[in-house]
Amino acid sequence: MIDTDIARRLQAAGLPWTPTDGDLFVIDNAQLREEPFMLSSMVVETGRSRSGRAVFRFNGTTEWALDSVEQDEAVWLPREDQLRHALGEAFLALHRHEDSTFSVTLRAADGTSREVPAPHAEDALAGALLIHLTR
User: Across-strand partners of 96?
Assistant: First the structure.
């Protein structure tokens, strides 16, 4: 799972999110920032508020006393497959090195490639996606 800070940076860089079952997210406030939630029709489902804004509804099975939160109060924590998909054709390869670190080979706009190293595959993909979205 990627760090909330990098997820927040991806969100600010314009990574679109259409919530679906299985997506992980955190509620971006001091009390809940470290507690990831998973969208699931059994526990947390998507819906619309009275004003028409996207919300996440917490069903009575969670220990938190939450009813619902608006989607813009949440930060999506994309999985490895979602990060790879978001990179699209800019993604060239994911490498695992002998020291168990990873790097992503990213196609640059000028046709050259760039290596983005990180300790975990998800982190390398998130870093590559951040570069891709902000160039």
Answer: 102
Nearest residue to 63 (alpha-carbon basis) of 82, 86, 37: 37
Output the CA–CA distances (angstroms, integers) from residue 65 to 9, 10, 59, 70, 88, in the order listed: 28, 29, 10, 15, 39
Tens-digit pLDDT profile for the chain (135 aa)? 999 999 999 999 999 999 998 999 999 888 888 889 888 766 677 888 888 898 887 766 554 556 777 888 899 999 999 999 999 999 999 999 999 999 999 998 888 999 999 999 999 999 999 999 998
Instruction: Say if residue 96 is in the same domain as residue 52.
Output: no
Query: Which of 29, 45, 77 represents a domain boundary (last residue)?
Result: 77
Range of the domain at 44: 18-77
Same domain, residue pair 92 and 68: no
Rounded Cα distance, 39 and 56, in Å: 8
Please tell me whether residues 58 and 42 are part of one structural domain.
yes
